[in-house]
Amino acid sequence: MSDKTDVWQGTLALMVLKTLESMGPLHGYGIARRIEQTSGDLLSLNYGTLYPALLRLEQEGAIASEWGQSENNRRAKFYSLTRAGHRQLHKETQSWEQTTAILARFLAPSEES
Amino acid sequence: MKQIRAWLLRMFGVVPRQRQEQDFSDELASHLQMHIDDNLQAGMSPAEARHDALRKLGGLERTKQAHRERRTLPLLETVLQDIHYALRQLRRSPGFTITAILMLSLGIGASVAIFAFVDAALIKPLPYADPMRLVDVAEHGAAFPRSNLSYEDFRDWQRLNKVFTSIEAYNGTGYLLTTPSGVEPVAAARVTDGFFRTLGVHPILGRDFYSGEDQPNAPATTILPYSTWQHRFGGRKDILGQTVSLDGNPTTIVGVLPQDFQFAPRGNAEFWTTTRKLTNCEQRRSCHNLFAIGRLKDGVSLEKAQTEMAAIAKQLEIQYPGSNRDQGATLAMLSELIVGTIRPILLVLLAGAILLLVIACVNVASLLLVRSESRRREFAVRGALGASPSRLIRQFITEGLVLVSIGAIIGLAAGDGAMHILLGLVSKDMLSSMPYLSRLTFNSHVLLFAAIVSLVAAAIFSLTPALRLPLSSMRSALNDGDRGAAGTLWRRLGSNLVVLELSIAVVLLVGAGLLGKSLYRLLHVDLAFEPSHLSTLYVSIPRSSYPKDEEVVVVTRKILARVSTLPGVTSAAATSVLPTSGNGNTDWIRVVGHPFHGEHNEVNERDVSVDYFKTLKARLLRGRIFTEQEDRTRPRVAIINKAFADKYFPGEDPIGKKYGGGDLKPDSIKEVIGIVDNIRESSLDGDIWPAEYKPYNQDSDTFTAIVVRTSGDDKSLLPALASAVHQVDPGIGTLDPQTMQQRIDGSPAAYLHRSAAWLVGGFAVLALILGVVGLYSVIAYSVSQRTREIGVRMALGAARGSVYKLILKEAGLLTIVGIVAGILCSIASAALLGKLLFGTHSWDLQTLSGVALLLGAAALLASFIPAHRAATIDPVEALRAE
Q1: In this complex, is the C-beta atom of B795 within 8 Å of any C-beta atom belonging to chain A?
Q2: A60 close to B (CB below 8 A)
Q3: Distances B20 to B17, B64, B72, B197 between C-alpha atoms, Å
Q4: Which of B17, B220, B272, B480 is packed most tightly, with the most Cβ within 10 A?
């Protein structure tokens, strides 16, 4: 457990958006599992924290929700990306890449020296 | 943007909670189910699978709570909870709630309605450019502090002054307007050319009078007020350049004034024309018929302007000693002229309404105090269960706010209604002299006032019980027996509140009593004539048809003869001015053979027909009445009133004596042939002036009033009166048919006194009720708190009579303190009323003792009920109950 990283707020939203973009409409449990899988099980995700994040994204209009049938024929609430969500994902991806690039440059020399 | 969206959603999320809660429960259930399915597939035991799923979720309730908090705004939610709880509390005690809300909305409604009037009349600036620089300019004579200005004096003032950027004159006049259905007398105003420019008013259609349009060679033009344009010309744009016939003269319409234009001194004018055609009066310096407005130059104060104008008047006095002796200049703010008379009334009414509001608030506050007493345990329990003190205080504040909000909403609605009812009660004539009342609206000022009032009330209501919140002694409050100390404290505070209420009620009652007495005195003022069964009508005889004075006399005589034949008519007469219209239309006289130093001896001048005194049933004290034969060919004669005789013929017999104008020109000399009683020519609250009555045969008027005494109903005669005049000549205009009694009752003096008396009376009655209810609740509460004490006393042998005495003594003390304080306050505040009283002193003993008795009796009744309850307490029951 100790080598797993906790998810902090801002990044969780970005992960949710990216997941929904690549996977299409998905329920909360599915999103949680997918994030864990994608991270190569390096992330320790408290599934419960996912739901306020989903609610917030929905309130902001980035995602929409609808009840539907899961692959196992279970009733589940499916989340999908809205057009605003696509835009937000695009913007946040860029900003994240920029941040990591800056950080990478910042950290790189100390490794070299 | 998206934050706002989210915030709004969260705000609305507060409302449909149940469904969302269920929705999320379902979502979590499906989440867990899917997780458990996967875990089972991975080979876990069912129990293990469920445990793992819950663990990964991080707890079911915690997740729900986090979701809930994200869903709504937590603070808003607790506030809503408070409101919800407050509403439930209020619903649980409907008696208290209804009483409190009723009192509050009554107080707020009354004060808001009165404030709207105050706002329309006194707060909103007059609709002119920079109205604070506009000044009313007039002369003052020996008898009139503000008298009309003579035309020639005005022109000199205009030329010589250096304090005004402009000064313009105006006066009221009347025209016979030719309409398709015949002639119709209309009220109008004449102004000098720059009048509207001085006010800073621009026509919305057409143009203003150009400079020089008031000169004799200018064409006849008129500017219409908006209402005339709408009502007489259907608001048509093409009326510019059209002509109307005013007194038979074609007059071109050149402009239309804005809808919000108003000029109270000439509020009823339907046409505005220029002074291009000077009247006879305006060609003599000694004749005064105008008023003026001036716009002060920047940096010139009213005092400075007054000094300069007085100096100019002095200069003219030296230059023209014959006409200008004692004629000074008097200046005042134009706003003072317009709202000066109504200000004291409105302020008294506002004070009354606010006092009523204070009583209402005090009453509600004491009700809240009683409730907070009985809720001590409830709050102690909530505190013990973990509610923080701030949350408990917030609960009080919320309850106060909820009460006030409901009260304010109902109060605003009631105020709006009251405003319109009150405005509807104002007669049309009064409204035209107070055009600013037409601006009465529910505007931001009124709402601001209501908001301030509500906030103050809310603060009082939330703080009073909050102060009493037993924060420190929470535990002792839980102890049922404890109430002695709290009871005493409440009794002291409550008693003070009741004394305050009772004294306010006394102040209002005394005010209403004094105003009522003034009104009575005013309506029963000595008229020296019999006002019942008199029908009156003004007639306007067109000069175009009757150019000579003799012809006017003849047609007037014809009218009187025609009117006399109407059924029920016992006599008919004409007069130039009806009694009770007010002092004015004066003559300056000089008694032949008496010392004279050029002073202005002003007397009311009335031209009347032979039967005038008989028709009015006015007493002839000495001498004789003139005859129909005394016309222009005979020596001039006059009848004078008693005041005239007393003032100018002290200690001599006036009959046979002669007087004339200041210069004693032969044609002004008249012989006194009779003395009549002091017929009230002045307004009801005015002074009796010397008056002369001249035969209309010797001095006729084209605008005259017909007075008819009938044995039948004076009101139903009015239409016949007008048609009788039109039978003589349809070209004669008739105006303003009213009975004499209607004129007296509807006169501005009676009107203002009556409205003030009724409104303050209404406030006083409400205050009395509220005050007595307040007293009742304090005494009743006190009795309920002292049940055990009384039980003990009775068990120890106290008689019922002594219990009555105990309670009544408590109530009596409060009442006496309240009445005494109230009477002291009303004497102190009498200065405010002083201007409104007529024939009544502010310390009128009758009123004061009447009020004291009334309130004393009401208070006795209010305290008798709880006293009776106390006296009938069964000691055994009382002791067991505790």
Answers
A1: no
A2: yes
A3: 5, 11, 11, 67
A4: B272
